[in-house]
Amino acid sequence: xxxxxxxIDGKQIQAPAGSSVLEAARSAGIYIPTLCYHPDxxxxxxxRLCMVEASGARTLVAxxxxxxxxxxxxxxNTSKVREARKTxxxxxxxxxxxxxxxxxxxxxxxxxxxxxxxGVRKLRFEGGExxxxxxxxxxxxxxxxxxxxxxxGRCIRVCRDVQGMSVYSFAGRxxxxxxxxxxxxxxxxxxxxxxxxxxxxxxxxxxxEKDDTDKVWDAINNPEKVVVVxxxxxxxxxxGEELGIPAGQVVTGKMVAALRHLxxxxxxxxxxxxxxxxxxxxxxxxxxxxxGGVLPMITSCSPGWVNMIELKYPELLxxxxxxxxxxxxxxxxxxxxxxxxxxxxxxxxxxxxxMPCTAKKAEAAREEMCAxxxxxxxxxxxxxxxxxxxxxxxxxxxxxxxxxxxxPLGTGTGAAVxxxxxxxxxxxxLRTVAEVVAGKELPxxxxxxxxxxxxxxEAVIDVAGVSxxxxxxxxxxxxxxxxxxxxxxxxxxxxxxxMACPGGCIGGGGQPVPVDxxxxxxxxxxxxxxxxxxxxxxxxxxxxxxxxxxxWLGKPLSxxxxxxxxxxxxxxxxxxxYLDNTNPPFFP
Length: 588
Known about the structure:
5-stranded mixed beta sheet; alpha/beta; 4-stranded parallel beta sheet
């Protein structure tokens, strides 16, 4: 790699040829403020907040898009630079709402932080006259407030370049420029999958998850209700970030203790139902493989991915596994098996889930997710929302003594916990399917062939003497490329795992911000550490799963199991089909 020598603020450094001044500065520990820049996205130099002085340039330059060159001298902290940055920031703030104290992003807002860092205490300009804009609160997952948009374009780039959905684009000119969906439809009537990646990268409160914490508090405070909560595998390796703990720390025990302090009656683990998912999905795969079913079979536990295939490729829906996601399986079991064992009227149970994913809110609201006669999951909150509840309750998270999940839905295996990262569902399934086919315990436990962070990975796996070709995909853009291959007949796989978000659930749209590749990697390493230190590492060895089948379900894919733990998928006719609102959406 060719390197160039340059000087930044008197410091001699080397940087790769072609890199930007901002990248060079950050590699040397020199801070330059940014708003439109995000390390996961292509830089555009839109906000101009990162301006610096560079030798050879006639004016200040945007460091995020200005390339380094040999002998360049850069100054990032002159009076001219500081004044320019303050002016840019003041101009942004003049058209921004002044409701910071009651904004959902208060404390996490990048605009707020930079204004404090730059010492902006008054505004010298008056805002321009803009068109009145309403808040888009139309769907179960995301809320958009155009008044708080600073036109950084991050949501456009992540939706277009990472997810391949292109839901957002710039519209209008001058003071009326805005980030818009097609024809300015709300998200309910657009091709949005509710993956929440736009909320993850939005620097302000312009796009946030729908806050359902009041629903949870109301349930907890209702003495007539029994409130049970489940926590997804990846929440335990990310929640700490919301509470001041460095990324990559496993906080399972403290998380359980905090949930008890909040007032939940039972604290359960989604790892239990992840193991249950493997039992149902793994046997479904074997059934298709042995009986000539539709192949490749594709996992269905990522709701953003399910929304995408229903919206864009409904003709390929027969490839999806019919197994519900772990979240929904847990809800169905909680209001039937658990209610029966505990002697509780299921009508009194409020099922809450803590998820890394904003699309899980829409999944729980799907009309068909109530096979037991009751809604599988009543309320979904994200990792961020749980963090806010813990802070609101005044809990000193670090001082908590670690606690254990409740039984009988609190035991999970290492196979379940790796659901939280890309490749994890595939590896967990292989651990069980291989031993079911072999009829005995096998020495191989870890399938490194499906591990990694490449957008698409493929491998041929020896499953007890049978060669099975598998693929693992993450991000919706990569998923679309895989579906095009299936349509063209060039995807000769038997089993495919798809996760909607970068890195899988560790990079979910409801996880703590900021997030980038390095933070996702730390969470991923923590996930695998949970697996390595688990006493049980195969789903079919989970004793609570064995009891569930022995005493209640019978066997995987039984009639009872199928009625509660499986579902169907259908085309979503949203977008322009809803111009007249005569065709209701798939959730209430």
